[in-house]
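User: Can you fold this complex?
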Amino acid sequence: MAPEQMPRKTQDEKIVTAAVLIIGNEILSGRTKDMNLGYLAEELTKLGVRLREARVVADVEGEIVAAVNDCRARYDYVFTTGGIGPTHDDITSAAVARAFGVPLILDERARAMLERNYPPGGLNEARLRMAHVPQGASLIENPVSAAPGFRMGNVFVMAGVPAIMRAMFDGVKGKLVGGRPVLSLTVSGFLGEGIIAAGLGALQQRYLDLDIGSYPFFRQGRFGASFVLRGTEQARLDAAAQELRSLIRELGAEPIEGEPAA
Amino acid sequence: MAPEQMPRKTQDEKIVTAAVLIIGNEILSGRTKDMNLGYLAEELTKLGVRLREARVVADVEGEIVAAVNDCRARYDYVFTTGGIGPTHDDITSAAVARAFGVPLILDERARAMLERNYPPGGLNEARLRMAHVPQGASLIENPVSAAPGFRMGNVFVMAGVPAIMRAMFDGVKGKLVGGRPVLSLTVSGFLGEGIIAAGLGALQQRYLDLDIGSYPFFRQGRFGASFVLRGTEQARLDAAAQELRSLIRELGAEPIEGEPAA
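Assistant: Here's the predicted assembly.
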């Protein structure tokens, strides 16, 4: 490895990690197609937070408690979606309280938010459930339908309805401390993955600070693959991409920047 | 509870469970949006197999091994997607072999499938990786692009490309032993979840053999919710749905069968 190819590791390269927990039987039965994971994955990547794992968990308190406790110990941030409404199947808040070993308490600020949202007398017992959070939690505002989410330790508890989840995430993302953003660069070619695999594996070995992925496609009536280089240093991405373009040419194909049109 | 409302539990009501593991950094970075979970969730539900959990796992051998071993012990079936191609980032087969504590071996039948798929001499070392399976595995045929998946114990290892995954699943689903199919019945109403929550919770308490979910929506310019009843006995679903329709009417709304148009 030539000196100019050596990755420069600096102290500011702390890697910040996250997990997403999608809570709800409706995702596991197939009734509802999850729309939140892809969104959070993209947003976290932009913020320099590396999503390491995601789980879809049933509306079963023990399962939620186990997933929250496992993930909050392993990752810097945990984001949950779903299960914070007013009905009997909304048990996320109680489960997170149990995971942290604290009581679920009525939050007066949350109650005030809900009171402003309903006609006088409309804040019944069921709706008041949505003003309960684990003791010590801070609220996450909900500009769409009032009922707030909350942050407890490193766990961010958000709604499952995509429009509400996005509004909540917009409110918290400024408070997240990310690592260096992960940059990516894509080069594609109309050639089989099996043709380039050996050269690509050798490239990955020469650039251990990058993550090189290979994703096959069938477009314009032909097979090909996109190669995605990911890392925190633009110069390293550029150098690896240059070698990759040469490799694609050596194999008789033309390198394409980005992804070819469908 | 009147005798005619008692759930009849019979020996054939064995509950068959499953987990899905979606393997791949591209899902966690947001580059690729998963299309497999929703499909498998629906198909398993139709087969009477209850999907209890899903996880998105990075292309890291230790993570895949841990997820496979955790899930294969807890559920009747485990389905994995992704990571069985020819490139360096395709490590699912090796990870599953390690999870089972067996070597990864060349399968001669898989090699023959691949040989038929490429021009003479085209089956290079990288492509030959796709003919390696854990010792003791049986193959899952791939009618789309030849390279097979495999079944090892209760773990079904399939491709990540949706068209290939679906073709592989079509080939194995006839071999799965499901429990009694879970039936579902949906009634909706243009009323707030918070209005019906108390009555709905009481209904759930009277029908503990059913799983009653509440899913809010905003359609035709109004808020409402769909209530999904799930269980294995049609008569119980019908009885609960009748009570639910009455409840919706008592609250001043009109029950709608199924979901209202968008």
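Chain A touches chain B through 63 residues (CB under 8 Å). Chain A has a mean pLDDT of 93.
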